[in-house]
Each structure stands twice: as structure tokens, then as C-alpha cells.
Design a protein that fits this description.
The chain is of the alpha+beta class. The chain has five helices and eight strands, in the order βααββββββαβαα. Helices cover 21% and strands 33% of the residues.
């Protein structure tokens, strides 16, 4: 099986040439690029992630030392399979989890996004590598309250070239 690995920048060149089956690559970039997304599920608890247009991912979660783990993100287009966004984090990033690759389809991402949990830019300044406060595992944090405390920012110019 062949897997095409694409950075966010590479999608800029491909957006108009993607086959119909890979259209969800553009959908994933639209959802994530230059945005901060708040996730919650029983298995992962609270997680907040900024997906930088430069290919860096900043994950704020309860088990991260200092609160933020820095990794990278990319789009993968496997043969005869759904397009995925994949995140790679250093070993030991998640306490008992060893880090590594974590890949999700568009549908898989949507399942755990908190209602109103998609924010433009990096309102929590996760690019600094420091979390604004310790993130609790439970209960789910109210997105509306976080939005009041940390207003949205610009998504940045890196996304505008290839995101509709």
C-alpha cells in the first residue's frame, strides 16, 4: 500500500488537482489549519490542540509535562482508504502512552470535537509551549467560557492560499 504524505503547504499546490476521493483532505485542512480545536471524550478527557499552518502541532492535555506537547501534523492519502490527518509526538508525551503517530479521518475528528470548540488562531498561545493553566481530565470544559476568556485570533496567512 502506498501512502502519500502531505504537509499543509503541499496541499496549497494540490487543492485544485485532488481527485474526488481525496477531497476530504481539503476538508481536514479547512477544519484544522490555523485553528485551535477542543476535544473531549470519555477515553481522552479534555484536549486542546493548535494546528499551525507551518506543520507544527501543539497539544495541551492533562498528562503533558508543562501542559503542552509539541509535534507535527500532516495529511496522508492512503491508497483505497479515507484521507487522514496524522499527528506525531515525541515518545513519552502522554504519560503511559509513548507518543508516536496518531491518525484520524475527518469523521473521527468530528466525533470528539466539543460543541463550539473550534477557534481561529492560537488564542491560548500554545506556540509558547506553556499552557495557560493545568487542563483537567474531567469534566468537559465549557467552550463558551474559554471563548470569553481567550478570544479568537487570526488564522494566519499560511492557510488562506489553500483553504476556501
Amino acid at each position: 500500500m502506498t501512502v502519500a504524505k502531505l504537509t499543509a503547504t503541499a496541499l496549497c499546490l494540490m487543492a485544485t488537482a485532488l481527485p474526488a476521493t481525496a477531497q476530504s483532505a481539503v476538508d481536514i485542512v479547512e477544519l484544522l489549519c490555523g485553528r485551535t480545536v477542543q476535544y473531549y471524550s470519555v477515553t481522552i478527557g479534555n484536549q486542546i490542540e493548535f494546528t499551525d499552518p507551518d506543520g507544527t502541532a501543539y497539544l495541551w492535555h492533562p498528562f503533558a509535562a508543562g501542559g503542552v506537547v509539541i509535534g507535527d501534523w500532516r495529511i496522508e492519502v492512503p491508497d483505497n482508504a479515507d484521507v487522514q490527518v496524522c499527528y506525531t509526538y515525541p515518545d513519552g508525551s502522554f504519560g503511559p502512552d509513548t507518543g508516536g503517530d496518531h491518525c484520524f479521518t475527518y469523521a473521527g475528528l468530528i466525533d470528539d470535537i466539543v460543541e463550539d470548540g473550534i477557534r481561529d488562531g492560537d488564542p491560548f498561545d500554545l506556540r509558547t509551549g506553556v499552557a495557560p493553566f493545568p487542563l483537567p481530565l474531567n469534566p468537559p470544559l465549557p467552550a463558551a467560557r474559554l471563548s470569553e476568556m481567550y478570544p479568537d485570533q487570526d488564522r494566519g496567512p499560511g492557510c488562506s492560499a489553500y483553504v476556501s
